[in-house]
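So, who can interpret the following?
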Amino acid sequence: MTSAFRTAMERGVIFSIAAVFIAQQLSHLTSLTFLLGGLVFLAIVLLLPRLKGMTFWLTAIFAVAGVVLLSARSAEARVWFDAAGVNVTIVTLFLFAPLFGIPVRLPAYVDALKRFYEAKFSSPAALVAGTQLLTQILCVFINVGSIPVVYEMVFVKPRPGLNRVLANAMNRGFAGAILWSPYFAAMTLVTSTLRVPWSSVLPHMLVLAVISLIVGLAVDYRELRRVRGTGAPSSAPGEARLATTITEGSAAFPMGLGMYLIGAMIVILTMENTIDLPMVLLICMAAIFFPLIWCAAKGKLSFYRRGIRHHATVTLPALQKEIALFLAAGFFSGSIGASSIGESVPELLSAIPLPVAMTFSILTLALIVGTSALGVHPIVLVTILAGGIDPLGVEMSPVSLAVLLLGSWALSNPVSPASAVNNLLAGLLKKTVFETAAPNYKFAGCMGIVFLVYLTSVVISYES
């Protein structure tokens, strides 16, 4: 099998998974379950030889463990195919959601953002807070692709004494986007598995996103004070004088970009509340038409076509590693759900002299963040817990469990040596991935405590 033919076959299988899933959701034909499951098994077999290191072993272990669990209980064929299709929503999201980011990369918007950044964020604290907030906003739409964009804005000039805290800010900004972006795999997996609307978790996740910004500044307060005490300027004197000459209008946040970002969110919220379709299908529909209409209105259809071509030839092939891991983790989660292993969890937790919901929340957060710090992707445990745990069994509502899993996933990302953001920042800053992740341990610990307090005192109490 030639390399070109194999690549085309892999791409064809991935597109077929998304197409069959969409057809199944629209037609409700149960017979498509077998075709969908078969395509998932084929995708895992095709992609597994391309994987390396921890990703290869995790994918292989999950696939084999799922086979063992279902074989042990002599599961029917339909159960196997149902289990294989647990995470196909994520593959579908990978195909369509990145299209939202095409208009965000319009050169006029990027240039305006650079002027806005230089003019508005001058003090060290403002620079760090602005970097984290800007990264979070852009990550909602262009995912990890926002890191190089923000990096070029931040490090276009030397930032004496601020390199580490600015890298931390970008890392935490990405984590903040995981909390509430409807276009991330985390949100799709959790909300679709637990069958909760995105709008029902959004208020809590936005509060947590703001809290993460405050905690990030508090954690780095001593270092920011030290930088201010040394008198290290955030820009050279000549550059600072030049920045002050920028007019208020030209240094404002680009209005067109702001309208696009707000418009995309309004479209999703409106569709969710008016169209009776799964959230992932609404995102796919909006991702196809909204950026296309926006680029057409701006006279940038050629830019849109280049974005589509880049997505098909560069972005999707780069996501094959995640696709294989996510599909195998979904199959393993489905096999656990079919084996009813999760039913024993509440009984085990009842032996601990704390409320079951609190105990479960603490253990879940510790396990997801702890295993991520060792290099295990958070989707592993999140998939297992979302699909294998009955929220009522751990004295939580589906919304509360969704907030717990999303918050744990977000907190795990800054400390994970396997996260795409840490690896990208390590390459940009010419450091090891562990040097990039280590400064975020303190943030994860402090934010974890605040998160648990908010979860147990506000979310669980309000949703119960």
